[in-house]
Amino acid sequence: MPLNRREDQPVIDSLGLSFVQNALQIAVITGLLLAYIGVHVVRRGIVFVDLALGQISMLGVAAAAYVEADPTMIGILFTVLGAFLLSFLNVKDSRLKQEALIGIVYAVAAALTVLLISKAPHGEADFSEVMFGSFFTVSDERILITALVFLGIGVLHLFFRKQFFAVTKKFEEGGETATGLFDPWNAVFYLSLGLAIVLAVRVGGVIPVFAYIVVPPVAAILLSPRGRHVIVKALAVSVLASLSGIVFAVQFDFPAGPSVVSVLGALLLCGSLVRYFLLKRG
Amino acid sequence: MVILVTAMIAVNGARAQIQVVTTLQDLRSITESIGGELVEVFAIATGYQDPHFVDPKPSYILKLSKADMFVTVGLDLESGWVPPLLESSRNAEILRGAVGYVDASENVPLLEVPTSISREGGDIHIFGNPHYWLDPVRGKIIAENICRGLIRVDPEHEKIYRQNLKIFREEIDRKLTEWVRRMLPFKGTKVVAYHNAWPYFEQRFGFQVVEFLEPKPGIPPTASQLAKVIETMKREGLKIIISSPYFRPQSADLVAKNVGGGIVVTLATSVGAEEEIVTYMDLFDRNTQFLIDALEQAGGSAGD
Protein backbone atom coordinates (compact mmCIF):
# COMPACT_ATOMS: atom_id res chain seq x y z
CA MET A 1 0.00 0.00 0.00
CA PRO A 2 1.93 3.02 -1.22
CA LEU A 3 2.12 6.00 1.11
CA ASN A 4 -0.17 4.32 3.60
CA ARG A 5 -3.44 5.75 2.35
CA ARG A 6 -6.52 4.81 4.30
CA GLU A 7 -8.82 2.99 1.95
CA ASP A 8 -11.88 5.07 2.80
CA GLN A 9 -10.24 8.27 1.63
CA PRO A 10 -11.55 10.11 -1.38
CA VAL A 11 -9.16 11.06 -4.13
CA ILE A 12 -9.09 14.81 -4.23
CA ASP A 13 -8.98 15.99 -7.76
CA SER A 14 -9.87 19.60 -7.32
CA LEU A 15 -7.63 22.35 -6.06
CA GLY A 16 -10.44 24.87 -6.22
CA LEU A 17 -11.85 23.93 -2.82
CA SER A 18 -11.86 26.84 -0.43
CA PHE A 19 -9.68 25.20 2.22
CA VAL A 20 -7.07 24.30 -0.39
CA GLN A 21 -7.20 27.84 -1.75
CA ASN A 22 -6.74 29.19 1.78
CA ALA A 23 -3.80 26.87 2.37
CA LEU A 24 -2.15 27.92 -0.91
CA GLN A 25 -2.63 31.60 -0.08
CA ILE A 26 -1.33 31.47 3.47
CA ALA A 27 1.61 29.24 2.52
CA VAL A 28 2.70 31.63 -0.23
CA ILE A 29 2.25 34.71 1.98
CA THR A 30 4.24 33.23 4.89
CA GLY A 31 6.81 31.66 2.59
CA LEU A 32 7.55 34.90 0.75
CA LEU A 33 8.19 37.03 3.83
CA LEU A 34 10.09 34.34 5.74
CA ALA A 35 12.31 33.54 2.76
CA TYR A 36 13.12 37.23 2.36
CA ILE A 37 13.97 37.70 6.04
CA GLY A 38 15.74 34.36 5.86
CA VAL A 39 18.30 35.81 3.46
CA HIS A 40 19.41 38.11 6.30
CA VAL A 41 19.25 35.33 8.86
CA VAL A 42 21.33 32.89 6.82
CA ARG A 43 23.92 35.46 5.82
CA ARG A 44 24.32 36.52 9.44
CA GLY A 45 24.70 32.90 10.48
CA ILE A 46 21.96 32.99 13.09
CA VAL A 47 19.65 30.30 11.71
CA PHE A 48 18.54 29.10 15.13
CA VAL A 49 17.25 32.51 16.08
CA ASP A 50 13.80 31.66 14.73
CA LEU A 51 13.60 28.46 16.77
CA ALA A 52 14.58 30.51 19.81
CA LEU A 53 11.92 33.12 19.03
CA GLY A 54 9.32 30.46 18.31
CA GLN A 55 10.13 28.90 21.67
CA ILE A 56 9.90 32.27 23.40
CA SER A 57 6.43 32.73 21.92
CA MET A 58 5.50 29.32 23.35
CA LEU A 59 6.90 30.43 26.68
CA GLY A 60 4.57 33.42 26.43
CA VAL A 61 1.61 31.13 25.78
CA ALA A 62 2.65 28.96 28.73
CA ALA A 63 2.94 32.02 30.95
CA ALA A 64 -0.51 33.12 29.79
CA ALA A 65 -1.89 29.67 30.61
CA TYR A 66 -0.28 29.88 34.04
CA VAL A 67 -1.92 33.17 34.95
CA GLU A 68 -5.00 32.34 32.83
CA ALA A 69 -4.64 35.38 30.59
CA ASP A 70 -5.14 35.83 26.86
CA PRO A 71 -2.46 33.68 25.20
CA THR A 72 -2.37 35.54 21.89
CA MET A 73 -1.38 38.92 23.26
CA ILE A 74 1.07 37.56 25.81
CA GLY A 75 2.63 35.30 23.18
CA ILE A 76 3.22 38.26 20.88
CA LEU A 77 4.47 40.41 23.76
CA PHE A 78 7.00 37.77 24.80
CA THR A 79 8.27 37.26 21.26
CA VAL A 80 8.65 40.94 20.48
CA LEU A 81 10.37 41.55 23.81
CA GLY A 82 12.57 38.50 23.27
CA ALA A 83 13.49 39.65 19.78
CA PHE A 84 14.38 43.07 21.10
CA LEU A 85 16.62 41.59 23.80
CA LEU A 86 18.21 39.19 21.31
CA SER A 87 19.26 42.17 19.17
CA PHE A 88 21.63 43.10 22.00
CA LEU A 89 23.44 39.80 21.64
CA ASN A 90 27.00 40.87 21.19
CA VAL A 91 29.86 38.48 21.60
CA LYS A 92 33.20 40.04 22.44
CA ASP A 93 35.08 36.79 22.89
CA SER A 94 36.39 35.65 19.52
CA ARG A 95 36.20 32.01 20.57
CA LEU A 96 32.42 32.23 20.91
CA LYS A 97 29.71 32.63 18.33
CA GLN A 98 26.27 34.21 18.61
CA GLU A 99 24.78 30.90 17.61
CA ALA A 100 25.86 29.34 20.90
CA LEU A 101 24.04 32.00 22.91
CA ILE A 102 20.95 31.71 20.72
CA GLY A 103 20.98 27.97 21.34
CA ILE A 104 21.14 28.60 25.07
CA VAL A 105 18.18 31.00 24.85
CA TYR A 106 16.25 28.28 23.01
CA ALA A 107 17.04 25.58 25.56
CA VAL A 108 16.24 27.73 28.58
CA ALA A 109 13.00 29.03 27.03
CA ALA A 110 11.97 25.44 26.24
CA ALA A 111 12.76 24.34 29.79
CA LEU A 112 10.84 27.23 31.34
CA THR A 113 7.88 26.42 29.09
CA VAL A 114 7.79 22.87 30.45
CA LEU A 115 8.05 24.14 34.03
CA LEU A 116 5.20 26.62 33.57
CA ILE A 117 2.94 24.19 31.75
CA SER A 118 3.40 21.59 34.48
CA LYS A 119 1.87 24.02 36.97
CA ALA A 120 -0.69 25.63 34.65
CA PRO A 121 -4.31 24.94 35.61
CA HIS A 122 -5.29 23.40 32.28
CA GLY A 123 -2.04 21.83 31.23
CA GLU A 124 -1.93 21.14 27.57
CA ALA A 125 -5.45 22.23 26.69
CA ASP A 126 -4.86 25.94 26.10
CA PHE A 127 -1.55 25.16 24.61
CA SER A 128 -2.61 22.87 21.81
CA GLU A 129 -5.27 25.28 20.59
CA VAL A 130 -2.81 28.12 20.24
CA MET A 131 0.39 26.46 19.18
CA PHE A 132 -0.46 23.88 16.57
CA GLY A 133 -1.75 25.76 13.54
CA SER A 134 -2.26 24.13 10.19
CA PHE A 135 -2.36 25.73 6.76
CA PHE A 136 -5.47 23.69 5.98
CA THR A 137 -7.59 25.08 8.80
CA VAL A 138 -6.57 28.70 8.68
CA SER A 139 -9.53 31.09 8.68
CA ASP A 140 -10.13 33.88 6.17
CA GLU A 141 -9.77 36.40 8.95
CA ARG A 142 -6.39 34.98 9.98
CA ILE A 143 -5.18 35.10 6.38
CA LEU A 144 -6.17 38.75 6.15
CA ILE A 145 -4.46 39.71 9.43
CA THR A 146 -1.31 37.80 8.50
CA ALA A 147 -1.26 39.27 5.00
CA LEU A 148 -1.62 42.83 6.28
CA VAL A 149 1.04 42.51 8.97
CA PHE A 150 3.42 40.74 6.59
CA LEU A 151 2.79 43.37 3.95
CA GLY A 152 3.71 46.02 6.51
CA ILE A 153 6.91 44.20 7.44
CA GLY A 154 7.71 43.64 3.77
CA VAL A 155 7.25 47.31 2.90
CA LEU A 156 9.43 48.29 5.86
CA HIS A 157 12.18 45.95 4.67
CA LEU A 158 11.90 47.11 1.10
CA PHE A 159 11.97 50.76 2.07
CA PHE A 160 14.96 50.44 4.36
CA ARG A 161 16.66 47.58 2.59
CA LYS A 162 19.96 49.51 2.39
CA GLN A 163 20.07 49.99 6.15
CA PHE A 164 19.06 46.39 6.89
CA PHE A 165 21.55 44.89 4.45
CA ALA A 166 24.27 47.22 5.71
CA VAL A 167 23.89 45.69 9.18
CA THR A 168 23.83 42.18 7.78
CA LYS A 169 26.93 42.90 5.74
CA LYS A 170 28.68 44.15 8.87
CA PHE A 171 27.87 40.87 10.59
CA GLU A 172 29.04 38.96 7.55
CA GLU A 173 32.34 40.77 7.26
CA GLY A 174 33.13 42.17 10.63
CA GLY A 175 32.40 39.11 12.69
CA GLU A 176 30.29 39.03 15.77
CA THR A 177 30.99 42.44 17.28
CA ALA A 178 30.33 44.44 14.15
CA THR A 179 27.57 46.67 15.42
CA GLY A 180 28.43 47.62 18.96
CA LEU A 181 26.00 47.00 21.76
CA PHE A 182 22.99 48.73 20.30
CA ASP A 183 22.21 49.34 16.66
CA PRO A 184 18.73 50.70 15.95
CA TRP A 185 18.48 48.93 12.55
CA ASN A 186 19.55 45.69 14.13
CA ALA A 187 16.85 46.11 16.77
CA VAL A 188 14.20 46.89 14.14
CA PHE A 189 15.33 43.85 12.18
CA TYR A 190 14.89 41.59 15.19
CA LEU A 191 11.51 43.09 16.00
CA SER A 192 10.26 42.43 12.47
CA LEU A 193 11.66 38.91 12.65
CA GLY A 194 9.93 38.25 15.97
CA LEU A 195 6.57 39.52 14.76
CA ALA A 196 6.80 37.52 11.53
CA ILE A 197 7.68 34.34 13.40
CA VAL A 198 4.97 34.57 16.04
CA LEU A 199 2.27 35.03 13.38
CA ALA A 200 3.72 32.41 11.05
CA VAL A 201 3.96 29.80 13.81
CA ARG A 202 0.24 30.31 14.51
CA VAL A 203 -0.74 29.41 10.99
CA GLY A 204 1.89 26.84 10.13
CA GLY A 205 3.72 25.42 13.13
CA VAL A 206 7.31 25.71 14.28
CA ILE A 207 9.14 23.40 11.88
CA PRO A 208 7.69 24.81 8.62
CA VAL A 209 8.59 28.31 9.82
CA PHE A 210 12.17 27.25 10.46
CA ALA A 211 12.35 25.58 7.04
CA TYR A 212 10.91 28.63 5.25
CA ILE A 213 13.54 30.86 6.83
CA VAL A 214 16.53 28.65 6.16
CA VAL A 215 15.95 26.49 3.08
CA PRO A 216 15.08 29.03 0.33
CA PRO A 217 18.07 31.32 1.08
CA VAL A 218 20.46 28.37 1.28
CA ALA A 219 19.11 26.95 -1.98
CA ALA A 220 19.35 30.39 -3.59
CA ILE A 221 22.95 30.84 -2.46
CA LEU A 222 23.79 27.40 -3.85
CA LEU A 223 22.24 28.37 -7.15
CA SER A 224 24.10 31.68 -7.28
CA PRO A 225 27.82 30.95 -7.40
CA ARG A 226 28.43 34.59 -8.29
CA GLY A 227 26.05 35.85 -5.64
CA ARG A 228 23.57 37.43 -8.03
CA HIS A 229 19.79 37.52 -7.64
CA VAL A 230 19.92 35.57 -4.38
CA ILE A 231 16.75 37.24 -3.06
CA VAL A 232 14.75 36.64 -6.21
CA LYS A 233 15.84 33.01 -6.32
CA ALA A 234 15.02 32.51 -2.64
CA LEU A 235 11.54 33.91 -3.17
CA ALA A 236 11.05 31.71 -6.23
CA VAL A 237 12.11 28.58 -4.32
CA SER A 238 9.76 29.51 -1.50
CA VAL A 239 6.75 30.03 -3.75
CA LEU A 240 7.48 26.87 -5.69
CA ALA A 241 7.76 24.85 -2.47
CA SER A 242 4.58 26.38 -1.02
CA LEU A 243 2.47 25.60 -4.05
CA SER A 244 3.84 22.14 -4.74
CA GLY A 245 3.93 21.29 -1.01
CA ILE A 246 0.23 22.00 -0.61
CA VAL A 247 -0.64 20.15 -3.83
CA PHE A 248 1.46 17.22 -2.60
CA ALA A 249 -0.38 17.24 0.74
CA VAL A 250 -3.75 17.35 -0.98
CA GLN A 251 -2.87 14.63 -3.45
CA PHE A 252 -1.56 12.17 -0.88
CA ASP A 253 -3.59 13.36 2.10
CA PHE A 254 -0.76 14.53 4.32
CA PRO A 255 -0.70 17.29 6.94
CA ALA A 256 0.30 20.57 5.30
CA GLY A 257 3.36 21.70 7.29
CA PRO A 258 5.45 18.54 6.98
CA SER A 259 4.58 18.32 3.27
CA VAL A 260 5.88 21.83 2.58
CA VAL A 261 9.05 21.12 4.58
CA SER A 262 9.67 17.89 2.65
CA VAL A 263 9.25 19.65 -0.67
CA LEU A 264 11.62 22.40 0.50
CA GLY A 265 14.15 19.69 1.32
CA ALA A 266 13.68 18.07 -2.08
CA LEU A 267 14.17 21.42 -3.84
CA LEU A 268 17.35 22.02 -1.87
CA LEU A 269 18.62 18.62 -2.93
CA CYS A 270 17.88 19.47 -6.58
CA GLY A 271 19.61 22.82 -6.06
CA SER A 272 22.76 21.21 -4.74
CA LEU A 273 22.81 18.71 -7.60
CA VAL A 274 22.52 21.59 -10.10
CA ARG A 275 25.32 23.38 -8.28
CA TYR A 276 27.48 20.28 -8.32
CA PHE A 277 27.10 19.74 -12.04
CA LEU A 278 27.52 23.44 -12.82
CA LEU A 279 30.80 23.55 -10.91
CA LYS A 280 31.98 20.34 -12.51
CA ARG A 281 31.29 21.72 -15.94
CA GLY A 282 32.58 25.22 -15.31
CA MET B 1 -28.17 11.31 -23.40
CA VAL B 2 -29.80 8.19 -22.06
CA ILE B 3 -26.43 6.95 -20.87
CA LEU B 4 -25.78 10.25 -19.13
CA VAL B 5 -29.09 10.14 -17.31
CA THR B 6 -28.48 6.55 -16.26
CA ALA B 7 -25.04 7.51 -15.00
CA MET B 8 -26.51 10.38 -12.98
CA ILE B 9 -29.08 8.13 -11.41
CA ALA B 10 -26.32 5.70 -10.50
CA VAL B 11 -24.35 8.50 -8.88
CA ASN B 12 -27.41 9.71 -7.02
CA GLY B 13 -28.12 6.18 -5.91
CA ALA B 14 -24.66 5.86 -4.44
CA ARG B 15 -25.03 9.22 -2.77
CA ALA B 16 -28.37 8.34 -1.21
CA GLN B 17 -26.67 7.06 1.92
CA ILE B 18 -26.55 9.62 4.71
CA GLN B 19 -22.94 10.77 4.99
CA VAL B 20 -21.81 10.97 8.60
CA VAL B 21 -18.44 12.09 9.99
CA THR B 22 -17.59 11.33 13.61
CA THR B 23 -14.57 12.39 15.62
CA LEU B 24 -13.97 9.02 17.28
CA GLN B 25 -14.22 5.43 16.09
CA ASP B 26 -16.57 4.67 19.00
CA LEU B 27 -19.07 7.19 17.68
CA ARG B 28 -18.65 5.66 14.23
CA SER B 29 -19.50 2.22 15.54
CA ILE B 30 -22.60 3.43 17.38
CA THR B 31 -23.73 5.49 14.37
CA GLU B 32 -23.40 2.40 12.18
CA SER B 33 -25.50 0.44 14.65
CA ILE B 34 -28.28 3.02 14.52
CA GLY B 35 -28.03 3.94 10.83
CA GLY B 36 -27.33 0.50 9.42
CA GLU B 37 -27.34 0.39 5.63
CA LEU B 38 -28.71 3.90 5.41
CA VAL B 39 -25.53 5.61 6.55
CA GLU B 40 -21.92 5.79 5.49
CA VAL B 41 -19.70 6.79 8.40
CA PHE B 42 -16.16 8.13 8.48
CA ALA B 43 -14.29 8.58 11.76
CA ILE B 44 -11.49 11.14 11.84
CA ALA B 45 -9.33 9.87 14.71
CA THR B 46 -7.94 6.37 14.56
CA GLY B 47 -8.54 4.19 17.60
CA TYR B 48 -4.89 4.17 18.61
CA GLN B 49 -4.47 7.92 18.46
CA ASP B 50 -4.72 10.32 21.39
CA PRO B 51 -8.08 12.02 20.72
CA HIS B 52 -6.81 15.25 22.27
CA PHE B 53 -4.43 15.76 19.35
CA VAL B 54 -5.28 15.26 15.69
CA ASP B 55 -3.33 16.83 12.82
CA PRO B 56 -5.68 18.19 10.13
CA LYS B 57 -5.45 16.38 6.81
CA PRO B 58 -7.16 17.39 3.55
CA SER B 59 -9.39 14.32 3.48
CA TYR B 60 -10.95 15.23 6.84
CA ILE B 61 -12.05 18.62 5.56
CA LEU B 62 -13.29 17.11 2.31
CA LYS B 63 -15.34 14.49 4.14
CA LEU B 64 -16.76 17.18 6.42
CA SER B 65 -17.63 19.42 3.49
CA LYS B 66 -19.81 16.66 2.04
CA ALA B 67 -21.25 15.37 5.32
CA ASP B 68 -24.94 15.43 6.21
CA MET B 69 -24.21 14.90 9.87
CA PHE B 70 -21.29 15.37 12.27
CA VAL B 71 -20.99 13.62 15.63
CA THR B 72 -18.59 14.87 18.31
CA VAL B 73 -17.78 13.76 21.85
CA GLY B 74 -18.04 17.43 22.76
CA LEU B 75 -17.15 18.99 26.12
CA ASP B 76 -13.61 20.01 25.33
CA LEU B 77 -12.03 16.72 24.29
CA GLU B 78 -11.55 17.70 20.65
CA SER B 79 -11.54 21.48 21.12
CA GLY B 80 -8.03 21.79 19.71
CA TRP B 81 -8.93 20.49 16.26
CA VAL B 82 -12.68 20.24 15.66
CA PRO B 83 -13.59 23.96 15.45
CA PRO B 84 -10.98 24.83 12.79
CA LEU B 85 -11.85 21.69 10.80
CA LEU B 86 -15.57 22.52 10.88
CA GLU B 87 -14.91 26.08 9.87
CA SER B 88 -12.69 25.01 6.99
CA SER B 89 -15.34 22.58 5.72
CA ARG B 90 -17.68 25.52 4.92
CA ASN B 91 -20.59 23.16 5.50
CA ALA B 92 -23.36 25.10 7.23
CA GLU B 93 -25.39 21.90 7.76
CA ILE B 94 -22.99 20.52 10.37
CA LEU B 95 -21.94 23.62 12.28
CA ARG B 96 -22.73 23.76 16.01
CA GLY B 97 -26.46 24.28 16.37
CA ALA B 98 -27.31 23.19 12.81
CA VAL B 99 -29.55 20.16 12.15
CA GLY B 100 -26.60 17.96 11.22
CA TYR B 101 -24.55 18.68 14.37
CA VAL B 102 -24.75 16.04 17.06
CA ASP B 103 -23.11 16.60 20.43
CA ALA B 104 -22.99 13.06 21.79
CA SER B 105 -22.65 14.37 25.35
CA GLU B 106 -26.18 15.80 25.40
CA ASN B 107 -28.13 14.49 28.43
CA VAL B 108 -25.14 12.44 29.55
CA PRO B 109 -24.62 12.72 33.34
CA LEU B 110 -21.02 13.87 33.68
CA LEU B 111 -18.44 13.20 36.35
CA GLU B 112 -15.78 15.53 37.73
CA VAL B 113 -17.61 18.70 36.74
CA PRO B 114 -15.69 21.47 38.53
CA THR B 115 -17.79 23.03 41.26
CA SER B 116 -15.87 26.27 41.63
CA ILE B 117 -14.76 28.91 39.17
CA SER B 118 -11.24 28.77 40.57
CA ARG B 119 -9.56 25.79 38.99
CA GLU B 120 -6.53 25.64 41.23
CA GLY B 121 -6.88 21.87 41.53
CA GLY B 122 -5.77 21.56 37.95
CA ASP B 123 -9.03 20.47 36.34
CA ILE B 124 -8.18 20.37 32.73
CA HIS B 125 -11.69 19.70 31.49
CA ILE B 126 -13.85 22.58 32.60
CA PHE B 127 -17.11 20.89 31.54
CA GLY B 128 -16.39 17.58 33.27
CA ASN B 129 -14.45 14.48 32.33
CA PRO B 130 -15.02 13.82 28.60
CA HIS B 131 -14.31 10.07 28.51
CA TYR B 132 -17.97 9.19 29.07
CA TRP B 133 -18.20 6.76 26.13
CA LEU B 134 -16.22 4.31 28.24
CA ASP B 135 -19.42 3.55 30.19
CA PRO B 136 -21.73 1.32 28.10
CA VAL B 137 -24.83 2.63 29.89
CA ARG B 138 -23.92 6.15 28.85
CA GLY B 139 -23.31 4.62 25.42
CA LYS B 140 -27.08 4.14 25.22
CA ILE B 141 -27.56 7.89 25.71
CA ILE B 142 -24.97 8.55 22.99
CA ALA B 143 -26.99 6.24 20.72
CA GLU B 144 -30.17 8.20 21.51
CA ASN B 145 -28.44 11.46 20.59
CA ILE B 146 -27.20 9.96 17.33
CA CYS B 147 -30.66 8.52 16.61
CA ARG B 148 -32.24 11.96 17.10
CA GLY B 149 -29.64 13.48 14.78
CA LEU B 150 -30.30 10.92 12.07
CA ILE B 151 -34.06 11.54 12.35
CA ARG B 152 -33.41 15.28 11.97
CA VAL B 153 -31.39 14.89 8.78
CA ASP B 154 -33.39 11.96 7.39
CA PRO B 155 -36.92 12.02 8.86
CA GLU B 156 -38.11 9.59 6.19
CA HIS B 157 -36.45 6.66 7.90
CA GLU B 158 -37.35 7.53 11.48
CA LYS B 159 -38.91 4.11 12.08
CA ILE B 160 -35.81 2.21 11.08
CA TYR B 161 -33.55 4.39 13.24
CA ARG B 162 -35.83 3.95 16.26
CA GLN B 163 -35.96 0.21 15.69
CA ASN B 164 -32.14 0.03 15.47
CA LEU B 165 -31.83 2.12 18.63
CA LYS B 166 -34.07 -0.35 20.44
CA ILE B 167 -31.94 -3.27 19.25
CA PHE B 168 -28.75 -1.44 20.29
CA ARG B 169 -30.09 -0.68 23.76
CA GLU B 170 -31.18 -4.27 24.24
CA GLU B 171 -27.79 -5.54 23.14
CA ILE B 172 -26.04 -3.23 25.61
CA ASP B 173 -28.35 -4.41 28.41
CA ARG B 174 -27.70 -8.04 27.54
CA LYS B 175 -23.94 -7.59 27.26
CA LEU B 176 -23.79 -5.43 30.37
CA THR B 177 -25.03 -8.30 32.52
CA GLU B 178 -22.21 -10.41 31.14
CA TRP B 179 -19.56 -7.69 31.59
CA VAL B 180 -20.67 -6.95 35.14
CA ARG B 181 -20.67 -10.64 35.98
CA ARG B 182 -17.22 -11.04 34.50
CA MET B 183 -15.90 -8.02 36.39
CA LEU B 184 -17.37 -9.18 39.73
CA PRO B 185 -14.04 -10.42 41.11
CA PHE B 186 -12.63 -7.01 40.29
CA LYS B 187 -15.13 -5.16 42.46
CA GLY B 188 -13.45 -2.90 44.99
CA THR B 189 -9.99 -3.42 43.52
CA LYS B 190 -7.74 -0.39 43.72
CA VAL B 191 -5.53 0.37 40.73
CA VAL B 192 -3.50 3.25 39.32
CA ALA B 193 -3.87 4.68 35.81
CA TYR B 194 -1.67 6.68 33.47
CA HIS B 195 -4.32 9.22 32.41
CA ASN B 196 -7.61 10.20 34.00
CA ALA B 197 -9.67 8.49 31.30
CA TRP B 198 -11.51 5.93 33.43
CA PRO B 199 -13.94 7.51 35.92
CA TYR B 200 -17.03 6.34 33.99
CA PHE B 201 -15.64 2.87 33.38
CA GLU B 202 -14.54 2.38 36.99
CA GLN B 203 -17.84 3.62 38.37
CA ARG B 204 -19.76 1.19 36.16
CA PHE B 205 -17.64 -1.81 37.10
CA GLY B 206 -16.99 -0.92 40.71
CA PHE B 207 -13.24 -0.62 40.96
CA GLN B 208 -11.22 2.38 41.97
CA VAL B 209 -8.38 4.34 40.36
CA VAL B 210 -6.53 5.86 43.31
CA GLU B 211 -3.58 7.54 41.61
CA PHE B 212 -2.43 8.72 38.18
CA LEU B 213 1.04 8.62 36.60
CA GLU B 214 0.34 12.02 35.06
CA PRO B 215 0.64 14.68 37.77
CA LYS B 216 -2.14 16.50 35.93
CA PRO B 217 -4.07 15.43 32.83
CA GLY B 218 -1.92 15.94 29.76
CA ILE B 219 1.30 16.53 31.70
CA PRO B 220 3.81 13.70 31.22
CA PRO B 221 4.72 11.79 34.41
CA THR B 222 7.24 13.56 36.64
CA ALA B 223 9.76 11.94 38.96
CA SER B 224 8.00 13.08 42.12
CA GLN B 225 4.63 11.87 40.84
CA LEU B 226 6.06 8.45 39.93
CA ALA B 227 7.71 8.23 43.37
CA LYS B 228 4.36 9.06 44.95
CA VAL B 229 2.58 6.42 42.88
CA ILE B 230 5.17 3.76 43.73
CA GLU B 231 4.92 4.66 47.40
CA THR B 232 1.11 4.42 47.36
CA MET B 233 1.13 1.13 45.47
CA LYS B 234 3.65 -0.42 47.87
CA ARG B 235 1.83 0.85 50.94
CA GLU B 236 -1.56 -0.40 49.80
CA GLY B 237 -0.30 -3.49 48.02
CA LEU B 238 -1.62 -2.45 44.62
CA LYS B 239 -0.42 -4.29 41.53
CA ILE B 240 -2.32 -3.05 38.48
CA ILE B 241 -1.40 -0.04 36.33
CA ILE B 242 -3.80 0.91 33.53
CA SER B 243 -2.24 2.52 30.47
CA SER B 244 -3.39 3.28 26.90
CA PRO B 245 -1.82 2.38 23.54
CA TYR B 246 -0.75 5.95 22.76
CA PHE B 247 1.22 6.49 25.96
CA ARG B 248 4.90 5.66 26.01
CA PRO B 249 5.37 2.54 28.12
CA GLN B 250 8.51 3.59 30.03
CA SER B 251 6.85 5.28 33.01
CA ALA B 252 4.30 2.53 33.60
CA ASP B 253 7.02 -0.14 33.22
CA LEU B 254 9.23 1.71 35.66
CA VAL B 255 6.47 1.83 38.25
CA ALA B 256 5.61 -1.85 37.70
CA LYS B 257 9.24 -2.83 38.19
CA ASN B 258 9.68 -0.74 41.32
CA VAL B 259 6.50 -1.97 42.92
CA GLY B 260 7.57 -5.55 42.49
CA GLY B 261 5.14 -7.75 40.59
CA GLY B 262 3.37 -4.73 39.15
CA ILE B 263 1.30 -5.42 36.06
CA VAL B 264 0.75 -2.93 33.24
CA VAL B 265 -2.61 -3.40 31.51
CA THR B 266 -2.97 -1.54 28.24
CA LEU B 267 -6.68 -0.84 27.88
CA ALA B 268 -8.26 0.53 24.73
CA THR B 269 -9.91 3.92 25.05
CA SER B 270 -11.42 3.60 21.60
CA VAL B 271 -12.73 1.18 19.03
CA GLY B 272 -9.92 0.40 16.61
CA ALA B 273 -7.18 0.59 19.24
CA GLU B 274 -6.45 -2.98 18.25
CA GLU B 275 -7.49 -4.91 15.19
CA GLU B 276 -9.84 -7.13 17.19
CA ILE B 277 -11.83 -4.17 18.51
CA VAL B 278 -14.17 -3.45 15.62
CA THR B 279 -17.37 -2.45 17.39
CA TYR B 280 -18.38 -0.60 20.52
CA MET B 281 -19.28 -3.95 22.13
CA ASP B 282 -15.81 -5.35 21.38
CA LEU B 283 -14.31 -2.47 23.33
CA PHE B 284 -15.87 -3.68 26.57
CA ASP B 285 -15.44 -7.37 25.78
CA ARG B 286 -11.75 -6.75 25.40
CA ASN B 287 -11.15 -4.32 28.28
CA THR B 288 -13.05 -6.39 30.84
CA GLN B 289 -11.15 -9.48 29.71
CA PHE B 290 -7.80 -7.73 30.05
CA LEU B 291 -8.58 -6.51 33.55
CA ILE B 292 -9.72 -9.91 34.69
CA ASP B 293 -6.60 -11.52 33.23
CA ALA B 294 -4.45 -8.98 35.05
CA LEU B 295 -6.27 -9.62 38.29
CA GLU B 296 -5.70 -13.36 37.99
CA GLN B 297 -2.06 -12.73 37.21
CA ALA B 298 -1.79 -10.53 40.29
CA GLY B 299 -3.10 -13.43 42.33
CA GLY B 300 -6.46 -12.39 43.63
CA SER B 301 -7.96 -9.14 44.67
CA ALA B 302 -5.48 -6.43 45.53
CA GLY B 303 -6.40 -3.63 47.88
CA ASP B 304 -9.51 -3.99 49.97
In short:
The complex is a heterodimer of chains A (282) and B (304). Chain A has 282 residues and is mostly helical.
Could you characterize the architecture of this molecule?
By secondary structure, chain A is mainly alpha-helical. Helices cover 76% and strands 0% of the residues of chain A. Chain A is built from eleven helices and no strands. In chain A, helix 1 packs across helix 7. The N terminus of chain A is likely disordered. Chain B is built from ten helices and eight strands. In chain B, the strands form two sheets. Chain B has a four-stranded parallel β-sheet with strand order 2-1-3-4, with helices on one face. In chain B, strands 6-5-7-8 form a four-stranded parallel β-sheet, with helices on both faces. Chain B has 304 residues and is of the alpha/beta class. The radius of gyration of chain B is 21 Å and the shape is globular. In chain B, helix 4 links the parallel strand 3 and strand 4. The longest helix of chain B has 26 residues.
Largest beta sheet of chain B, briefly? 4 strands, parallel
Strand content of chain B: 5-15%
First-last Cα distance of chain B: 77 Å
Q: Please write the string of helix (H) and strand (E) elements of chain A.
A: HHHHHHHHHHH
Distance between the termini of chain A: 44 Å
Sum up the overall morphology of chain A in one term: globular
Query: What structural class do helix, strand and pairing data of chain A support?
Result: mainly alpha
Query: How can the largest sheet of chain A be summarized?
Result: none
Structural class label of chain B: alpha/beta
Average pLDDT over all residues of chain B: 87
- Total beta strand runs of chain B: 8
What's the alpha carbon Rg of chain A, rounded to whole Å? Answer: 19 Å
